[in-house]
Task: inverse folding
């Protein structure tokens, strides 16, 4: 295959992968204005360069759409596919993927300088659970009245909490005063794995066909 043609096919495969991950509008059917196009069918096979009118007729005969996936190639590369079905399936897959993703939130756990051991253990467990769920956690020591004269007690308390959360948390923001609050922000020590989207079979076939042609 000529180098220019191989590069055009490469652009088409890359562009089609992009449309798989981000649903965007492509020119299709009669909106394609160029005189000729390079065609990839719905099985990933390269059919070569042909007049756009002929490509449109082929799409109609197969009951699919002619979709321009690499408009900057010369000539532009188009793919034969059921575009409406593709958009529906893609939206459905993205919706399913979002169900498995956890949206990180900033959650707050408050302490008092004179907190007793039982309450402290409870608060530490709560902070740990929030971190395990993938949330950021703000630890806040609340000072009242004369307690404001002893900020060292708050610093010591936060240091103790962080030590108890060792292995589950990392410090994102060190202790800072905000009025009568002494706060710091922790993030999970290990990020929750991202949801992986499986490759589409026809995209893989297109890549394999491209490799054979090249």
Result:
């Amino acid at each position: 295959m000529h180098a220019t043609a191989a590069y055009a096919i490469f652009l088409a495969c890359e562009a089609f992968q992009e449309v798989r991950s981000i649903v965007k509008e492509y020119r299709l059917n009669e909106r394609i204005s160029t005189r000729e196009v390079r065609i990839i069918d719905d099985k990933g096979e390269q059919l070569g360069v042909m007049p756009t009118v002929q490509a449109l007729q082929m799409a109609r005969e197969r009951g699919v759409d002619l979709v321009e996936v690499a408009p900057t190639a010369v000539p532009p590369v188009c793919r034969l596919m059921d575009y409406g079905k593709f958009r529906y399936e893609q939206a459905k897959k993205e919706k399913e993927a979002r169900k498995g993703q956890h949206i990180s939130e900033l959650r707050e756990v408050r302490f008092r300088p004179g907190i007793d051991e039982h309450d402290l253990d409870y608060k530490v467990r709560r902070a740990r659970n929030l971190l395990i769920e993938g949330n950021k956690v703000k630890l806040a020591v609340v000072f009242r009245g004369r307690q404001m004269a002893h900020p060292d007690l708050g610093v010591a308390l936060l240091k103790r909490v962080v030590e108890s959360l060792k292995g589950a948390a990392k410090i994102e923001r060190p202790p800072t005063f905000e009025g009568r609050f002494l706060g710091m922000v922790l993030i999970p020590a290990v990020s929750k794995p991202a949801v992986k989207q499986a490759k589409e079979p026809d995209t893989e076939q297109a890549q394999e066909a491209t490799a054979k042609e090249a």
